[in-house]
Amino acid sequence: xxxxxxxxxxxxxxxxxxxxxxxxxxxxxxxxxxxxxxxxxxxxxxxxxxxxxxxxxxxxxxxxxxxxxxxxxxxxxxxxxxxxxxxxxxxxxxxxxxxxxxxxxxxxxxxxxxxxxxxxxxxxxxxxxxxxxxxxxxxxxxx
Length: 143
Fold this sequence. Notes:
This protein is an alpha+beta fold. The protein has one domain (2-137). Helix content is 21%, strand content 37%. The longest helix has 13 residues, at 38-50.
């Protein structure tokens, strides 16, 4: 058992970074997740934290609009900056590790509150960004 200092995965506007994530490593430096369900657990943990990030609402089927989650005014079309949200995760009885969720923030044209465009915007990119963590860690693909 070892820990990876830092491994990241990106998809669309989402960047995920795991710091000090536990992994199994053999003598030949092959790496595996600490449990066969670990990566699914990681996706669930990220999705459970999505609601803690201030987010606007997406409206429209063809022509999408993003409205402020507070005052319902339109969000700026370009992001103000990127923000990293940090969380501590703990898998079973292993040592805790950190997860960083980085997304662009958009300013509301009405109240000025900064937020991600929508929770859906984060949610849809999570599995693909976790695949990037999987690849960055050097885990083999299954299936």
